[in-house]
Each structure stands twice: as C-alpha cells, then as structure tokens.
C-alpha cells in the first residue's frame, strides 16, 4: 500500500482567540442592598401590623369589659334572687323539720325597700315603705338615701 499523505490539522494563521475560562454564570436574584431593603421593609410592615392588631385587641378588650360591667347588675340580681329562693326553701324545710319542737320560731325573712327618715352621723333611721306581715328584726343597708332591708 502506498503511503497516503495525511493532512494534519494546524492552528489557523494568527492563532486561536482567547479562551474564556472565568465563571460566566448569569446574575440571579436581587443584590445584597436590595435584599436588605426588602428585609427592612418587611420588618416595618410587620411592626405596623402588630401595632394595629394590638390597638384593635385593646379596643376589643375594653368593649368586653364594658359589656361585663353592663351585665353585672343583671347577673348580681339573678344571684340575689337565687340566694333568696334558696334561703326561703331552707326556711320552709326548717319549718317542716322543726314543726314538732315547741317554742321554735322560724326566722321571718322579708325584703322591703325603706326610706331614710333622718341621718345622724353614720346611723340612719329607716321607715319601711311596705307594711310587714309579722314582727321581724330588720337589717338595713342604706345607699344614698334608699335602704334595702332584710327582715
């Protein structure tokens, strides 16, 4: 076989161009300053929402307290009615239990509204507006001229 003449590759005349060996990654995301700015913005927004929510929560708490204060007389009246009903039931039961004991008097309980006739220092004399059925011992609690007596 005859030897064929092989043409060898050679660099182009003037040589190859420069080889780019540096990292050539595309820019992704925000710069450091912009990320810092976004973080500060989110922080300010979060604090603003927090302060607004605390103000709203404080307003709701005040509203709840006002509702409790408004309902307190009703709840106190219901409690007083329940207490008086229990006291009356206890006295009725006492009368049933002690009916065979001679000289036993069941406590007379009546609630009446009294008006203060005169005031001597801290002692007040009260006159009952409602006529009592029986002779009772009266305990009065006077507030600004009107007394509530439990007899």
TrEMBL record:
Q: Which UniProt keywords apply?
A: Electron transport, Membrane, Mitochondrion, Mitochondrion inner membrane, Respiratory chain, Transmembrane, Transmembrane helix, Transport
- Primary residence: mitochondrion
Pfam families, from UniProt? GRIM-19
Location comes to: Mitochondrion inner membrane
Q: How does it sit in the membrane?
A: Single-pass membrane protein
- TM segment ranges: 30-50
InterPro entries (UniProt xref): GRIM-19
What GO cellular component entries does it have? mitochondrial inner membrane; respiratory chain complex I
What is the recorded function of this protein according to its Swiss-Prot or TrEMBL entry?
Answer: Complex I functions in the transfer of electrons from NADH to the respiratory chain. Accessory subunit of the mitochondrial membrane respiratory chain NADH dehydrogenase (Complex I), that is believed not to be involved in catalysis.
Q: Which family does it belong to?
A: Belongs to the complex I NDUFA13 subunit family.
Cite the record's note on assembly.
Complex I is composed of 45 different subunits. Interacts with CARD15, but not with CARD4. Interacts with STAT3, but not with STAT1, STAT2 and STAT5A. Interacts with OLFM4.
This chain's protein is named NADH dehydrogenase [ubiquinone] 1 alpha subcomplex subunit 13
Higher taxonomy = Eukaryota, Metazoa, Chordata, Craniata, Vertebrata
């Amino acid at each position: 076989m005859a030897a064929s003449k092989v043409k060898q590759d050679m660099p182009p005349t003037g040589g190859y161009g420069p080889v780019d060996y540096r990292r050539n990654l595309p820019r992704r995301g925000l710069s450091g300053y912009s990320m810092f700015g976004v973080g500060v913005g989110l922080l300010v927004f979060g604090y603003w929402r927090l302060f607004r929510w605390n103000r709203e929560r404080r307003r709701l708490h005040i509203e709840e307290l006002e509702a409790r204060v408004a309902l307190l007389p009703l709840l106190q009246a219901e409690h007083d009615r329940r207490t008086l009903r229990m006291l009356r039931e206890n006295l009725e039961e006492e009368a049933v239990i002690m009916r065979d004991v001679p000289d036993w008097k069941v406590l007379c309980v009546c609630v009446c509204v009294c008006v203060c006739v005169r005031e001597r220092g801290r002692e007040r004399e009260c006159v009952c507006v409602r006529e009592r059925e029986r002779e009772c011992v009266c305990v009065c609690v006077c507030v600004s001229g009107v007394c509530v007596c439990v007899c």
